[in-house]
Amino acid sequence: MAVTLNRITREGEYGPAMMPVIQGVGRAAIEIAYLLRSAVFRGALGAAGVENVQGEQQQKLDILSDEIFLDEMRSTGHVCAVGSEEQEELLVIDEYASADYLVLVDPLDGSSNLDVDGPVGTIFSVVKRKSPNDQRPDVSDTLQSGREVLAAGYVLYGPSTMLVCSVGAGVSGYTYNANNARFEVSHPDMSIPQSGGYYSVNEGNSSQWMHGIADKLVSVRHTQKLGMRYVGAMVADMHRTILKGGVFLYPADAKNTNGKLRLLYEAIPMGFLMEQAGGKAHTGEQPVLDVQPEALHQRVPVYLGAHASVDALIS
Ligand code: AHM
Ligand code: MG
């Protein structure tokens, strides 16, 4: 008998409490996967004609995925608010404003890949509110370091739909089985190989990188015999890095002096997973999970991967 997402209830200290939220992520993933497959027939591809808080063009699918995710978080009854890449402000779920948990999400990461039918993903993490339950949650509840994250994960919309998550007791990968509408364990206890694999970075930016990263990368890829792969969707690039080893990085550059990726809903969830998978997650200055967030949409440089590869780049 296949093992399903329910096994999370038996994992770690927070598994039982996180189960309804992760099941909600699973439902959102099924809906978003369907939306992606049918988008071309529904006129849902292309730009929505508006910019998000990052000043980036939102795709119609960014907005639809965000709505689906929020609806599913509401339906859990356990989430009081959602901080999303697609929303400038924290979205409080009024009916459940006294619930315990907040979710941070990038509902459709790597959405520039949509133009070329490439892989995209959803990234999320869960924290417990700091404010009393009888108060309305606010953005300060989201500003918690990665050490306070209770659960994190991603969904990869590739040839299959995979949910990879952790409640702080290792990392497991579940593949959606459309025959029975369940996520089934396909990758139990994921752990990153400590040698070999690939480096993964937008090398087109190398002349702009700061802190001598370009020279260090030349040396690392040579001495550690790394191949090169880059999808340009963090979920796909991280998934391969965890399974095959090596390092994914998005360093600071002259244009993006704090890097490109967002701390709360990209770097922290992926850093949490990488540490849980036996790897290292660093900003170049400190472990990603030690950064004390100051703003919902804050950016940070990231180096995520096998210890030796990350160490060689940040030293
Ligand atoms: P997005 O959240 O607007 O999709 O941007 C994040 C994406 C990541 O998935 C990916 O790692 C990175 O941006 C790619 O950036 P670039 O196109 O500069 O290589
Ligand atoms: Mg995104």
Quick overview:
By secondary structure, this protein is an alpha+beta fold. It has helices at residues 15-38, 60-76, 213-223, 234-244, 263-276, 307-314, and strands at 47-51, 57-59, 79-84, 91-92, 101-109, 120-128, 151-157, 161-166, 172-177, 182-187, 198-200, 227-228, 246-250, 280-282, 302-305.
Structure explained in plain terms:
The chain is of the alpha+beta class and 315 residues long. It folds into 2 domains: 5-187, 2-Layer Sandwich (Fructose-1,6-Bisphosphatase, Chain A, domain 1); 198-314, D-Maltodextrin-Binding Protein, domain 2, CATH 3.40.190. It is 27% helix and 24% strand. The chain contains 6 helices and 15 strands. The protein has helices spanning 15-38, 60-76, 213-223, 234-244, 263-276, 307-314; strands spanning 47-51, 57-59, 79-84, 91-92, 101-109, 120-128, 151-157, 161-166, 172-177, 182-187, 198-200, 227-228, 246-250, 280-282, 302-305. Strands 4-3-5-6-7-8-9-10 form an 8-stranded mixed β-sheet, with helices on both faces. A hairpin with a 5-residue loop joins strand 1 and strand 2. Helix 1 runs antiparallel to helix 2 (60-76). The longest helix has 24 residues, at 15-38. The radius of gyration is 18 Å and the shape is globular. The site of 2,5-anhydro-1,6-di-O-phosphono-D-mannitol (AHM) has 14 residues, from strand 5 and helix 4.
